[in-house]
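Possible regression after last week's pipeline update?

I re-ran a chain I had predicted before the update to compare outputs. Posting the input and the new output here so someone can diff against the archived version. Not blocking, just want to make sure nothing changed silently.
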Amino acid sequence: MGAELNRLGRHGWRVLHSIPLANKVDIDHLLIGPGGVFSINTKHHHKRAVWVGDDSVKVDHGKPAPYARKSRAEAKRVVPVLERYCDFPVPVEPVLVFVGVAELKVVATQLSVRVYQERQVAALAPLSGVLTADQVEQVYSVARHRQAWGQA
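New output (post-update):
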């Protein structure tokens, strides 16, 4: 997953991996670029079938998992950290990426989380118009410092 995200660098994107937060929680990946900031939550379900509805995820028709809700909550935790040190609004979108799945079926109509398989994250590359190149660098500079995440 990290390698897929690192490839977006040639399109003006910056990426950070495994950002530790309080309570032994971490942000798997933070993608920062012209299209905004994306908090990426990865889920590994090797060769399993994943079904995504509006607010639930089922793996192999099992019990619903709160992945979408947790991804939204994670993105909301990122916003105040970045905006504390930036003099502009920093929109953060949640992204849920399923790694190694045999099948991904998204049937949601109201989902507020982007959902991809690992090879599909390249779809974020052409997004633009949210942050300038200077703002990308400022957000990246803030996000790189572990001290900034102490209160998150």
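Follow-up from reviewer: compared with the archived run. Strands lie at 14-20, 26-33, 36-44, 49-52, 57-59, 92-99, 103-106, 114-117. Marking as no regression found.
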